[in-house]
Design goal:
This protein is an alpha+beta fold and 706 residues long. It contains 14 helices and 36 strands.
């Protein structure tokens, strides 16, 4: 019976869980329809998606390379002399995923020379090239095989070197160029045939579910070749001739292994399909092999950008005394072959561009690249550079965009980053050198301007005939930095006041409004040589001030009004005395206790802690502000009751920490709403005002404005 009771309890729990899950789904909706933010920089996303230079990645999925976005991630200077650049090697394959060995030993690398395994030939060529990151990077660095050493321009970050897979893992971010120095070995087919494939035990592992199938196919497709090298070449040739490269390869059903599906069903794939199949087939013939996750580049150009879509997976097999040798069984690269090429002269021409580049925004440049014979250039890159002086060869300029030339045309979207100083520049389009084409330049002028943001602050309701202080700011919209020493104009009541912004981009002015009504006060920045125009307007309501009690009393005490007042007072006193004397005669005398008059009520400051009485939250906010005002008068004697709330705000801004500016603005605005508007305030508004004052007081204790 206990077992049945437990079973019944389990069913009840399961039913409740399913019900709760269904309710959650109904509440949340279809999460697959959520729109995720995809606005991350292309450079960073490119490396991340390419099993990337974004540290810590340990796996590469078959087919990963077709998921990359466009956009340069590295700039390589000088010819690499090798088409294949590595990041890390992987041995372990499981259902479409390659995993780097987890138990490898790492050594801390700081630029020392490294030993290389190959002992033949004796005198390999030494090749050097430079890698320039275009963003902050971490993770496995892009290098070549048989590294001699890396020369680091940035010494304050840590690199781990894995000798077993010839990989460098940057633990900390880096953005400085580094030099790659490696030994370039050339092997003859005779030397490869005479050697034997060797390698670690993990380079022979084949998934059990695929072992029989791969062994059968490997023996069939190797054609009875005798040496390890001949077997590999025969397998490579079979894959090249009988399978198709296509980035639109069919998706693999979950029940299939991607390589089994590729070899037996679709026969269509990308580099990771071909070379994964090649490695697993080689292992089925007892030949150790591994894959390498890296990039393909053009080996013979002086300068080139590396794009995310150049991510690639190729194969390596280790031969005795020769080291690891690269194999590529994918048609897209092996069919290129070696050619004797004569470079053609090119002419680069910008045919159009946005006439102005606004800091912090994008602008477009378009044009053509054609040969001297007027034929369209293709398959090359154009970099767009801003230079102050096109004749100054020592000025490197700032690269603001990179694009690809297609059928002789390019259209590049460039970024005018906030770091660019406004001014006149030459817009240089540089068509990069390739194996087929020489480089060329064109350099029309362009102006870099700033788009300013103006802000005017001050009371929106004032008394007529009073001097009111207003303040304004001007900042760059791209990064919020102040624009200093620029001319601004204030316009109101047919008046124009000319001002210059200070080192904080601020201005101040005094305005007087003689007649009640509505007045617009505008702060204006007219368009100038390097700044766009901007304006900010504040609507001000001018009202009649309340009567002044002291002036009214003075009026009554002047001649001849003082005589009338005196006579009226005397008559009143006489009438009162006569009536009181008559009443005292009619009544019995009563001795009254002396009444002690209450002392005159003093102002209550915020720090006095006396409970605040109010009948509405609007009244409460006003009383909170008045308490705070009195407290500040005690601390700063030059604050008097004649100041407007905004003038009071500006006095405190000069004395309190800068972090209090926004709080003061919020406090004064709350007071103005409570005092002058028809808006009904809530308990939350009252609490927020109280909390704002408490926070301002805490900031006061932290120190004065620097």
């Amino acid at each position: 019976m206990k077992q049945y009771a437990r079973l019944l309890g389990l069913l009840i729990v399961l039913t409740l869980s399913v019900g709760m899950l269904g309710t959650a789904i109904n509440i949340l909706g279809d999460i697959t329809r959520l729109e995720l933010d995809d606005k991350s920089p292309i450079t960073a996303k490119g490396f991340s998606e390419a099993q990337s230079l974004s540290g810590g990645e340990q796996q590469a999925q078959v087919g990963y390379e077709v998921e990359q976005e466009k956009g340069p991630i590295l700039l390589i200077r000088l010819p690499t002399r090798d088409k294949y650049l590595r990041r890390y090697a992987a041995y372990n394959y499981t259902h479409g995923t390659w995993t780097k060995p987890m138990d490898l030993e790492a050594m801390n690398y700081y630029g020392q020379l490294l030993p290389t395994d190959p002992t033949y030939p004796k005198n390999p060529a030494l090749v050097q090239f430079q890698v320039n990151p275009l963003t902050n990077l971490t993770g496995y660095m892009l290098v070549a095989q048989n590294i001699d050493h890396l020369k680091l321009n940035q010494s304050d970050f840590t690199i781990d070197y894995y000798e077993d897979i010839q990989s460098f893992d940057a633990i900390e971010p880096y953005d400085q160029p580094y030099w790659v120095s490696y030994k370039k070995y050339q092997y003859s087919e005779a030397a490869l045939r005479a050697s034997q494939a060797i390698g670690p035990e993990e380079a022979l592992q084949v998934p059990v579910a695929l072992e029989d199938y791969l062994t059968e196919k490997a023996r069939e497709w190797s054609g009875g070749a005798a040496t390890d090298y001949d077997k590999l070449v025969t397998l490579q040739r079979y894959l090249l001739e009988n399978f198709e490269f296509n980035e639109s390869f069919p998706a693999t059903p979950s029940s299939y292994d991607p390589i089994r599906y590729f070899l037996s069903i679709t026969k269509v794939g990308v580099g990771s399909h071909f070379n994964t199949a090649f490695v697993l087939l080689a292992r089925s013939l007892n030949i150790p092999a591994r894959v390498v996750v890296g990039y393909t580049v053009k080996p013979d150009v002086e300068m080139q950008y590396v794009l995310p879509q150049q991510a690639y997976m190729y194969a390596e097999v280790e031969f005795e005394k020769l080291g690891w040798v690269t194999f590529d069984a994918c048609p897209i690269h092996t069919t290129e072959g070696k050619q004797n090429i004569t470079q053609q002269q090119t002419i680069c021409n910008i045919t159009g561009n946005d006439p102005v580049a606004i800091r912090g925004q994008q602008f477009n440049v378009w044009g053509t690249v054609r040969t001297a014979n007027d034929t369209a250039v293709t398959d090359t890159q154009v970099e767009i550079i801003l230079k102050k002086d096109k004749w100054n060869m020592s000025e490197a300029g700032l690269i603001v965009g990179v694009g690809v030339v297609t059928d002789g045309w390019f259209n590049v979207t460039c970024d005018a980053t906030p770091e660019i100083i406004v001014g006149d520049y030459n817009l240089t389009a540089h068509s990069l050198e390739t194996a087929y084409y020489m480089e060329s330049f064109t350099d029309p002028p362009i102006k870099v301007m700033a788009d300013p943001i103006l802000n005017i602050n001050g009371p929106r309701q004032v008394y007529e005939g009073r001097n009111i202080t207003y303040r304004g700011t001007i900042v760059d919209s791209s990064d919020g930095t102040p624009i200093i020493n620029t001319t601004l104009k204030v316009e109101f009541l047919n008046q124009i006041i000319t001002l210059k912004s200070d080192v904080e981009g601020k201005v101040s002015f005094v305005a007087l409004f003689p007649v009640k009504g509505q007045v617009n006060v505008s702060l204006v920045k007219e368009e100038s040589l390097y700044y766009l125009g901007a304006v900010d307007t504040l609507a001000v309501t001018v009202i009649v001030p309340p009567p002044d009690a002291t002036n009214f009393l003075a009026l009554l005490l002047t001649f001849p009004y003082n005589i009338g007042v005196a006579l009226t007072g005397a008559i009143g006193v006489g009438v009162y005395a006569a009536r009181r004397n008559k009443r005292l005669q009619e009544e019995e005398p009563i001795i009254e206790a002396r009444v002690k008059l209450a002392p005159e009520k003093q102002y209550v400051g915020f720090e006095d802690g006396i409970p605040l009485e109010y009948t509405s939250y609007e009244e409460g906010v006003v009383k909170l502000f008045n308490r705070f005002y009195v407290s500040m008068q005690r601390i700063y004697p030059d604050i008097d009751e004649a100041m407007t709330p905004r003038e009071f705000q500006y006095v405190l801004e000069e004395r309190l920490p800068k972090t209090a500016d926004a709080l003061l603005e919020d406090l004064v605005s709350s007071y103005e709403i409570a005092m002058y508007s028809n808006i009904t305030l809530s308990q939350d508004d009252f609490k927020r005002t109280n909390a704002t004052i408490e926070l301002i007081i805490e900031l006061m204790k932290s120190g004065q404005r620097e």
